[in-house]
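[Discussion] Sanity-checking designs against the backbone

I'm trying to build intuition for which residues belong where. Below is a structure token string of 267 positions. I'd appreciate it if someone posts a full sequence so I can compare it with mine line by line.
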């Protein structure tokens, strides 16, 4: 990807008014960044992190109104997560106040809520400065609301206000499955985010503030933690037993096939 192409794509994703070309530019950029560390690093050097954050910020307090706009926003977050793979881009993200922007998006509880959590997960993994910034800008309250399952946000399904009681009647099976998978991924991202906080903040007042969250409201977060631990432990045990049985049924499985089956099972 030559420099001119990169500059053109970055220019298009920063256009304030939505255009079809903006969606295509975001999609091309996401593809180019997906499996290329070289592109991720080079785009970071060209202020790509700032450009993508600028594109995301245009939708920080509102939901996309069309499927094309939803796709464009998803593409921008895919770009951002790819850019956050190299360590130097994590630093650029923090310096560009990306942590603050993601927290604002989470507080708005709009369409991009889950994408903001995913971006923070990428930014904070193995990068203590992002974890420290997260605590400093009052992100703990927002993160633990998600951890407790208390955060409600707009859901692109009909009759969302009655979704718990009417889901079986109003949401087609495919959409119900999609929603369940989305909520499961969201839960896993939040757990990963909090694990990164504990790994990245080892001492001092920030550590005290993090630990104090587990004391609030009669230790409800510890109860929630144990609930999640038991649920995921049971899943791992059941899948391990199933895989053991599959191996007995097919003794000719090589190590790669065994590994792939474990990945498919989430182990």
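Best answer:
Here's mine. Compare freely.
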């Amino acid at each position: 990807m030559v420099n001119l192409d990169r500059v053109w794509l970055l220019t298009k994703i920063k256009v304030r008014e939505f255009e079809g070309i903006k969606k295509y530019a975001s999609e091309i950029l996401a593809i180019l960044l997906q499996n290329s560390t070289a592109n991720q690093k080079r785009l970071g050097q060209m202020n790509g992190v700032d450009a993508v954050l600028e594109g995301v910020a245009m939708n920080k307090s509102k939901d996309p109104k069309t499927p094309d706009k939803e796709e464009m926003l998803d593409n921008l977050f895919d770009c951002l997560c790819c850019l956050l793979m190299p360590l130097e881009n994590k630093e650029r993200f923090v310096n560009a106040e990306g942590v603050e922007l993601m927290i604002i998006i989470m507080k708005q509880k709009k369409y991009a809520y889950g994408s903001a959590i995913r971006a923070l997960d990428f930014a904070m993994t193995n990068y203590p400065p992002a974890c420290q910034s997260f605590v400093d800008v009052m992100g703990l309250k927002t993160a633990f609301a998600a951890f407790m399952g208390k955060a409600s946000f707009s859901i692109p399904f009909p009759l969302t206000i009655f979704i718990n009681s009417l889901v079986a009647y109003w949401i087609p099976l495919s959409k119900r499955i999609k929603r369940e998978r989305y909520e499961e991924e969201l839960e896993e991202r939040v757990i990963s985010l909090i694990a990164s906080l504990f790994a990245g903040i080892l001492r001092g007042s920030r550590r005290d503030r993090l630990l104090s969250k587990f004391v609030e409201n009669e230790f409800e977060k510890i109860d929630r933690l144990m609930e999640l631990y038991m649920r995921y432990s049971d899943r791992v045990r059941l899948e391990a037993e199933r895989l053991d049985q599959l191996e007995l049924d097919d003794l000719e499985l090589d190590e790669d096939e065994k590994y792939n089956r474990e990945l498919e099972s989430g182990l």
